[in-house]
Predict the 3D structure of the following.
Amino acid sequence: MTVRDSLVYRLICMLFAAYDNSILKKVICGMGAYFKESLTYKLILKYIYKQPKIYSSAIVSLFNGILYRLGGLCDRILKLLSGSAVCRLLRVVVGHKDIFLYILVAYPFTDYVIRNTVGVLAGSWDEMFFVGLTLLLALDFFFNHKERKYVVSPLNTAVIIFLAVMFGCWFVVSPDREIGLEGLRAVCEYIFWFFIVLKLCDSDKLGKRLCICLFIVVGIMALHGIYQYIVAVPMPAGWVDHNEAGVRTRVYSILTSPNVLGDLMTLAAPIGAGLFLEEKDRFKKIIYGAGTLCIIVSLAFTFSRGAWLGFVFAVVVFVMFYDARYLVPVCILGLLVVFLVPEVGNRISYMLSHDYIESSMNGGRLIRWIDGLKVWSYGKLSGVGLGHFGGAVAENHGMSYLVADEYMETFYMDNYYLKTMIETGVVGLAAFIFLMYQVFISSVRAVKSSEEYRLLKTGIMAGLFGVIMHNLVENIFEVPMASTEFWIFAAVLMSFWYRRTGKR
């Protein structure tokens, strides 16, 4: 029996067919057509299509001038070294730079292999790899510097502003500079991958291949996750509330947390959908479709409500930019999953129950958020200092605070926005929200920049937005792998934009 012969497929087709012929669709289409004629819509389009001021900035002009002069110096050095064995070897390394980017995208596998073979490098291999790719970037410029321009994108300014604000928070606020420096590194280090990948991802084909690489990596982990669900792999008791019934296991593949696995799948599933819709070859289309379905199923088996939340937002964004007319049937399809799959429905309904609220107020998210706000109330503007509360650095140093005549030990906030506000105050939170907003609006600009790879770019944008929303209920950016993958694909998306709009 083929997929087309299955009951589920026929039900989905019946749902969309009924919607296509319904009055509801006609009403929605009419409202959409009316909105597109409005002044509001025209102002939105004008804002989206406006060119970033970074083009004409003095900083970019300065960088371009420096790169031009460095290019001239490289020409002279190349004349001296031309033909040498070292020069030929370095050219070969630069010519295979794609391989190093694939290794980076395959972060979950790379990290797993290193941790289980060369354990001494487990905590530092990514930093060593960052140094190596920085040197590779320098070599790439050395041999291929004909285009002596600074690679700009609508996102560059927001990233630089955020890094500057975080550095200022560390320098001005941190009660303990050493702990503050660790906190600064945890927040900012992985953002620098954005600049590396933005420059090294120099073709549309490479950008697409990096997306395929992530799809393959997460797809294999999804199959592993489905296997774990089938065999009911053991899980720690703390992964499910003691009052909650019906969850026999939560899958995590080769990672240590179902929430992190869910985050990777939230990022990868829309990218898989984009690859599926872009592909013309029938065999590849089947692979992309089946792989995306496996990722979604495994995401469900993580039973990570935070990842589900992010995925719902990702789906809404994807459908809105693909064809907004189908938002209603997709929402109905989602509700059917909740009602027809008991474990998913029970997990969500429990979250809305009195028992969950009581449990959450007795050591769960809600009481943590409330306690975190109490700590923040002592430093609303500037916070308590980077690395001093709500994350891994603070936990490693056993940080605690005197709140209402009682010492409160630090804990994971399970909300990266709230954690940022507690450590860096309103100033840091504003910088972070501005950065996340710019990631989204810059992604929209990249999608709108051209019709080439439009659906793939839509998938990347939706995945990034899903991760942004997931951080409302998890400290996802505390995880090096998750943060790295986010900034890799932010850079890939901006590289698509640069080749359409950014070259001046």
Observations:
- Residues 13-49 form one domain.
- The chain has three domains: 13-49, 54-152, 187-356+417-502.
- Residues 283 and 289 are 10 Å apart (CA to CA).
- The chain is about 70% helix and 0% strand.
